[in-house]
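Quick one - inputs below.
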Amino acid sequence: MKKLMTLLAVSGFAVAGEASADYALNLTEGVTELSRDIHDLHMLIFWICVGIGVLVYGILVYSLIHHRKSKGAVPAQFHENTKIEILWTVIPFLILLGMAIPATRVMIKVYDTTGADLTVKVTGYQWKWKYDYLDEGVSFFSTLSAKSNEARQMGSGIDPATVDHYLLDVDHPLVLPVGKKVRFLFTGGDVLHAWWVPDLGWKKDTIPGFITDGWATIEKPGTYRGQCTELCGRDHAFMPIVVIAKPEAEYREWLAAQKGTAVQAAGEPATSQEKPSDHQPEPPLAAAGSSEATSPAPAIGEPLTQEVAMTLGKEVYESHCQSCHQANGEGVPGLFPAIHGSQVVQGPLAAHIQLVLNGKPPLMASFRNILKPQEVAAVITYQRNAFGNSTGDLVQPADIATH
Amino acid sequence: MSVSAIHDDHHDHGPAKGLMRWVTTTNHKDIGTLYMVTSLIMFMVGGAMALVIRAELFEPGMQFVDPMFYNSMTTLHALIMVFGAVMPAFAGLANWMIPMMIGSPDMALPRLNNWSFWLLPFAVLMLMSTLFMEGGAAAAGWTLYPPLVLQTGAAFPFTIFTIHILGVSSILAAINIIVTILNMRAPGMTLMKMPLFVWTWLITAFLLIAIMPVFAGAVTMLLTDKFFGTSFFNAAGGGDPVLYQHLFWFFGHPEVYVLILPSFGIVSQIIPTFSRKRLFGYSSMVYATASIGFLSFIVWGHHQYTVGMPIEGELYFTYATMLIAVPTGVKVFNWISTMWRGAITFESPMLWAIAFVVLFTLGGFTGLMMSISPADLQYHDTYFIVAHFHYVLVSGAVFAIIGGVYYWLPKWTGRMYDERLAQLHFWLTTLSVNLCFFPQHFLGLAGMPRRIPDYALQFAEFNAWSSVGGFIFGFSQLIFCYIVIRCMRRQGEHASDEVWEGAGEHGLEFTLPSPAPYHTWETPPNVH
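Output:
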């Protein structure tokens, strides 16, 4: 009883308060033709079920009320009736036909990925997304925003209600043009994931070694959020998806900025002011100016200083290593080895580089194609000089290139 | 059905004394009891795991457990409830009831029966022990999808071996049930006179024999992928992770009918008794059960609408899955027609059966919605699915089992359970199960994925409601334990031989004395 009162109080408060800004009871209509068709299909089946339900439950309740022994009911003797039994086999079949036809029509549309204006490849990793704009040469990772990530740690002391879009915000959103047919290609980097943005109307599994596809023509500019929907390990709940749909012109600008930073960044070393965690998550401008979309690291071959390597290394560690090896470098016993005091980290450099580049199946991904040489060099430098390790090594991109 | 039982002056051999009675017993009633007690214990253990899940989900943020442990909880909760609670409960009911219902003195293969039970506790203990292994228990969900499941730590081979042993246990039980039903029926007990519970179990047993080897094979392939360098499910070696899903669901979909068909049988026993009327459409019930059994083998792909199979596959599985609604509908219509113009009373077993019809049908509706592949692209792997399968498995399978226990407990123990407590148990359970699972429909439609330990703020209210419902549901089952233990300790009013008014008309078991003697039908009854 006490629990119930607490709950009433809690939910009453929450409904009144701002914490529950936009809870929903039903499927979204979304912002694409597919999502609308699917929503309509959903409502059609729903109302058919409600109709059947009213009939069936109505008869049941009538019987329970009127055919009670306590009301003096005397049991009838009938126990079969071929006509009615055929009838209630055939009628449901016809109702099903009525559902199958629109379902088929929508499914054919879902599968029609032809005539796309642009193609984005989506790769699911534990626990981040990688987006490749195939025709543009733009490519970046998208991970849970730093604020949510901090708040979601056990005992963080941060109230999730104080975090904007708690667990539904990322550092680098996927930016797409409005009114263009976007074709998505999906694949997995390690285990299965599923890419789902309810407003687009569907989800698709990302399968390592295979490519699946889907499409969306977003009709309204806006920010659309979703999550991974295939269990993918420890941080399955913490790899959201954010899609920002912009008018064509703004999208072009954003794309140019992405390419621009890629060129610019090649020349200048990373500075501590440009940490991704300093980014404000929401305003669209922040997305447009997300200069880390391609990493602001030195060009290949340019030597790193210890300071730059440690700063860049820490960033790389936080976005690529931390979810397994943990923020304190202690790992998870039995699953993810500790960085602190690790024999690999304190042992010969070559073995350490090999491990990072080749990974350790089935648990650790190969980072050869995920990280750039300078990022590998930086993160290895960082690991060898943080968490109580002090080899004093400074690894250079050139050292990586030789492996 | 009228019966003439001939009692001779043969003296019953009572059970052996002491603990060894239970280890060495080949008596179908003893083994039934062992299965039922194991099932009840595992129901509480699996329930405790569910409460860990619901506690973590009570509010946003991570409060109690590491995400990895959370994933282990969802995995073990499902495995234990399916293989440790529901299936053993059905096996227990089959052991107790099938011989008594068909007029047989025991199961056909008594020593095999002992063996198939005693595999079970060891398998379940091994599964539980993985919680304490390095790296924790399996955390890839009960479906054990690769490649994720290959990341399991030391628990991996033990989880696989558990499944092997559980599979052997199920197959042995299924063989025994088929042989018993086909060979041990009393004179005059033709197939089309068998009680529905016997029919549904016969079909279930065939399903089990067909699917368990497939599952065992699939998990063995996982084992060799992990330890012996094969690449069945590894694309880098020419394999395919989705192949596992096809194998799993070829097992998994019939498996969910293994969990529901005997429930149909139980409900089909209870409703006629308390409606004081014969079951409506007996033969269409049998055919509907057989159709559902057949269809269960050809619809597995509806669990995989989002893996990117060809559109022909999507559409085929959509149509085939929708078809299941037809025989399932027939069953629901028949139950309601059985009640129609009956003389209904509302003793506890009947309450559970009515709740089963209402809530299982609700789960059937959401099942129909999910069969529509385009719509499932939204529903898939969300809380909508979680709500659906808990409606059909908790307020379906579990409700039927509890109803069956109340229905036959007086026959087993010779004592009436406490009806007032049982009514309290029913209402608390039914209200809380809806409080727990109904809001999950909204959560899923609003976009909450399943198998997540933490969620965005817009999901907070319904999760809080759901957790409160879950806790009330869990603790209400203590009342059930108390009621059952009281009867087992021979406390409470004596039950009559017929137990329920007119029940002797509805089943051979109610023509036997209460409690049922250790040996029954040593001389088969004559069934007209």
